[in-house]
Write a structure and sequence with these properties.
The protein has 424 residues and is an alpha/beta fold. It is 32% helix and 20% strand. Helix 10 (330-337) links the parallel strand 14 and strand 15. Helix 1 runs antiparallel to helix 2 and helix 9 packs parallel to helix 10 (330-337).
Length: 424
């Protein structure tokens, strides 16, 4: 008698070798179940291994050190653990240490990690101070992980802007790049764009990754990186074709570079994410004046983040005939009025201080823009009201954007905005 064992786990279906195996990406919520499945037999272990080891996250402390020691043990035996080929996504975080010059676990472990995981799809590095890495660790980072297709640097520090750009330029196969909170002590980017030439010259600045299709930045010398990519596109037309652009903490200083970059991208841009902060309250008009979206005429999705609506000052009781107050967030209306592309999806997050602040938003101008001919292709409009209330805020949005509500494309979410402007 033959017994066939079958198990059903969310995201994973396993059965005996005589039948087909169907797998799909799983989530951490059923990691324990998958571990249990891997203990049933050698076949099930092999089938589950891809899900168990696809994502590896390492930080300072016992886990990171033990993991590196395990790899070093196998390297000493001229082999690698059987799970290594299944690791596709690696997250590494440097330890803080009591003093900046204290020994860091990642500096010691980088050569081993880079030498072991040469089949990675994505790499995410956090808290790395480039100047504190040894030359051996720097070389290992740039050469060992050279083939990754997704690279994210978060809260990392470089001595100069050119140091940061030279590191990024080494990852020639990167298709998606995220720079979040990257800091440079000073800017040494030359004013002359002619320096963006071949890397055969020792002092030349490397060109951006040729395959770059998705770019995400926040607080990371945005204008300098955009200038670098823009200059390369200008000198070598068609080298870089960014299709997804994500920019967070967009301010007055970076707005001109963002406007030029968007114009240069033109019809190649398919998806745009723009994040603002409190500075948009006072500088919104100036920021938006540099951004003309009419050049991006095949844009399919646009998402806006961090639109803060402050409380209005109380009315003057002595003024018997007060003038009408100016609607808030008019720069958003101006920004959207420049869209000429057949957008399918639009979303924006509102952060009103209170119910009165939300009511003061320029809903009339926004509704007029979104009712235009160029917006007839909209299939989904998501408005996130990032505030807690009794439902009145959601009703206000539905009432003030009633034409979208009647078309069945408006979706209002009240609460925490779980969208991420900088992600790959």
């Amino acid at each position: 008698m033959t017994i066939t064992l079958i198990t059903t786990v969310p995201g994973l279906h396993l059965q005996s070798p005589s039948l087909s195996i169907i797998t799909s990406p799983t989530t951490l919520s059923n990691l324990a179940e998958i571990c249990n499945c891997s203990l049933v037999s050698r076949f099930w272990l092999y089938a589950a291994r891809d899900h168990l080891w696809r994502y590896v996250r390492l930080g300072g402390g016992r886990r990171g050190n033990n993991f590196v020691e395990l790899l070093q043990y196998y390297r000493h035996e001229s082999t690698l653990p059987s799970f290594v080929p299944h690791v596709k996504h690696l997250f590494i975080r440097e330890s803080r240490g009591s003093l900046s010059w204290d020994p860091k676990w990642l500096n010691a472990g980088l050569p081993t990690l880079a030498d072991s995981f040469n089949n990675l799809h994505s790499l995410e590095a956090e808290r790395i101070t480039w100047e504190y890495l040894s030359s051996k660790s720097r070389d290992a980072f740039m050469k060992g992980f050279k083939g990754v297709r997704k690279l994210a640097l978060r809260v990392c520090e470089f001595r100069t802007t050119q140091d940061m750009i030279r590191v990024i330029g080494e990852f020639e196969n990167v298709e998606a790049l995220a720079l979040d909170g990257v800091r440079c002590e000073w800017d040494d980017m030359p004013a002359d764009s002619e320096v963006f030439v071949s890397r055969t010259e020792n002092r030349a600045i490397p060109k951006p990754p040729r395959k770059l299709r998705e770019l995400a930045m926040r607080g990371a010398h945005t204008r300098h990186v955009l200038k670098w990519i823009w200059a390369a596109m200008k000198h070598d037309e068609g080298r870089v074709t960014v299709q997804v652009l994500r920019l967070g903490a967009l301010g007055v200083k970076s707005a001109p570079a963002v406007g030029n970059f968007l114009k240069m991208l033109g019809a190649s841009l398919k998806e745009l994410h723009l994040g603002f902060d409190a500075a948009f309250i006072g500088d919104g008009d100036e920021i938006v004046s540099h951004i003309d979206l009419s050049h991006n005429n095949v844009l399919k999705e646009m998402h806006v983040y961090g639109l803060i609506i402050p409380s209005l000052p109380p009315p003057d009781a002595s003024d018997l005939d007060p003038p009408p107050s100016t609607p808030q967030l008019m720069p958003l209306t101006t920004l959207l009025d420049g869209v000429r592309a057949p957008l399918r999806a639009l979303s924006f997050a509102l952060h009103p201080a209170d119910l009165h602040a939300l009511s003061s938003m320029d809903f009339e101008g926004l509704a007029h823009v979104l009712d235009g001919r160029s917006w007839t292709t909209l299939e989904d409009v998501q408005v996130v009201v990032a505030n807690e209330d009794d439902g009145r805020m959601g009703r206000i949005v539905n009432q003030r954007l009633d034409r979208l509500f009647e078309r069945g494309v408006l979706r209002v979410d009240v609460g925490f905005d779980d969208r991420e402007v900088v992600t790959i």
